[in-house]
């Protein structure tokens, strides 16, 4: 188990993740009408190995 700590102003939050894949530059693609009701997901990206990853909006969660 890995916990990623995020800080926004004086608030701290911990997110439990399955694994860290490192730092990558990505293009966030809009999910349009498919996930627009979920305010915690900003979009999705396709990783280098072809997997699709949802992008969490950490600011919306804090």
Which helices and strands, and how do they pair?
Elements: E1 2-8, E2 11-17, E3 41-46, E4 52-56, H1 58-61
Antiparallel strand pairs: 1-2, 3-4
Write a brief caption for the model.
The protein is built from 1 helix and 4 strands, in the order E-E-E-E-H. It has 62 residues and is mainly β. A hairpin with a 5-residue loop joins strand 3 and strand 4.
How would you describe the overall organization of this protein?
This protein has one helix at about 60; strands at about 1-10, 10-15, 40-45, 50-55. β1 and β2 form a beta hairpin. The chain has a domain at about 20-60: SH3 type barrels (Roll). The strands form two sheets. Strands 1-2 form a two-stranded antiparallel sheet. It has a two-stranded antiparallel sheet with strand order 3-4. With about 60 residues, it is mainly beta. The radius of gyration is 13 Å and the shape is globular. The chain contains one helix and four strands, in the order ββββα. The protein starts with a strand and ends with a helix. About 5% of the residues lie in helices and about 40% in strands.
């Amino acid at each position: 188990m890995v916990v990623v700590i995020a800080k926004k102003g004086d608030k701290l939050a911990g997110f439990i993740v399955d694994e860290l894949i490192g730092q990558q530059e990505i293009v966030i693609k809009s999910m349009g009408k498919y996930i627009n009701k979920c305010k915690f997901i900003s979009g999705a990206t396709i990783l280098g190995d072809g997997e699709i990853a949802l992008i969490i909006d950490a600011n919306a969660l804090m």
